[in-house]
Specification:
two-stranded antiparallel sheet; globular; 2 domains; alpha/beta; 8-stranded parallel barrel; TIM Barrel
Length: 323
């Protein structure tokens, strides 16, 4: 049940992908998602050096014999190394799947394809999805306005974006932004997606390295407790409402430069929040779906509950149709 082109493409049991999350998507979380039947994605930007990333890829492989991927963030501000350097590393380490994001992967597709690497490209709009398909990616993840991270400038929700993208493409589409449980998983499939990409729900798990203070903040938060920053830069980011987010919004209103904003939104400050538990040290990227997350459980419990409850939902819907 729930066999789709995504499960066939990546050789996974369930069409559930844990998207690459900066600082958080490390070997333990990634391997656990893959072992539970989904597919974890390492966040390459977490690691400052090429060798640190290499070690994490090898560590992940030591923890699972299931498929996993590595995120390739193409946005210059997020990079410590050249893109070519990371791709060469992926080839050396026999990485099978790359989740690209941040900009068009077009210049790097020949390298990735020559190495036999499957590419799923994450986008916030249909026009970018069409472009990704035209340059040869294997699948697209479309993320709506609800998502954590960068939802794009258009402000369109997943409920609209997913079917529009499915109708526009021939390759498989994965839905992101607002997905956390069986009901949203079945909804994504009903909209035509062939899988879901989940971030925030996997933060509130035992295996995620986020500090307990951050996890506690998540399970208390409401759906209205996130906000958008960096809109003036053309790269809006959804984050939890805290002091740095409030300051960033004020700076945004007066048209602050990237350099000014980095004094509030830098990765170093984010690390103090995510990893050290200083909630007001930096911005914390969380999706609106946080309002539907009320407990910290294991990754396996998250995935098992999605699949088992989704089966029950499908049975109920079938009975409703029959009657």
């Amino acid at each position: 049940m729930f066999k789709t082109r995504i499960t066939e493409l990546f050789g996974i049991k369930y069409p559930i992908i844990a998207g690459g999350m900066h600082l958080l998507s490390r070997a333990e979380l990634v391997a656990t998602v893959s072992n539970a039947g989904g597919m974890g994605i390492l966040a390459s930007t977490t690691f400052e050096t090429k060798e640190e990333l290499r070690e994490e890829i090898r560590k992940t492989r030591s923890l699972t014999n299931k498929p996993f991927g590595v995120n390739l963030n193409l946005f210059p501000m997020m990079r410590q190394r050249s893109i070519k350097e990371d791709i060469d590393l992926f080839v050396d380490e026999d990485v099978e799947v790359v989740e690209s994001s941040g900009a068009s992967p077009e210049p790097y597709m020949p390298l990735l394809k020559e190495a036999g690497i499957k590419v799923i490209h994450k986008v916030p709009a249909v026009r970018f999805a069409r472009k990704a398909e035209s340059v040869g990616v294997d699948a697209v993840a479309i993320v709506g306005f609800e998502c954590a991270g960068h939802p794009g400038m258009d402000g369109v929700t997943s409920l609209i974006l997913v079917p529009l993208t499915v109708d526009a493409l021939e390759i498989p589409v994965v839905a992101g932004g607002g997905f956390c449980d069986a009901r949203s998983f079945v909804a994504a499939l009903a909209l035509g997606a062939e899988g879901v990409v989940i971030g925030t729900r996997f933060v509130a798990t035992h295996e995620c390295v986020a500090h307990p203070e951050i996890k506690g903040l998540l399970i208390k938060a409401r759906e209205t407790d996130t906000t958008l920053i960096d809109r003036s830069l053309g790269l809006p980011m959804r984050v939890i409402k805290n002091k740095p987010a409030e300051k960033a919004r004020e700076m945004d209103k007066r048209g602050a430069s990237l350099g000014e904003l980095m004094t509030v939104i830098s990765g170093a400050l984010g690390r103090k929040a995510w990893i050290e538990g200083d909630i007001d040290a930096g911005v914390v990227s969380i999706g609106m779906v946080v309002g539907r997350i009320h407990e910290i459980v294991s990754v396996k419990e998250v995935i098992d509950s999605i699949i088992e409850e989704a089966k029950d939902i499908c049975k109920r819907l079938d009975l409703t149709l029959v009657s």
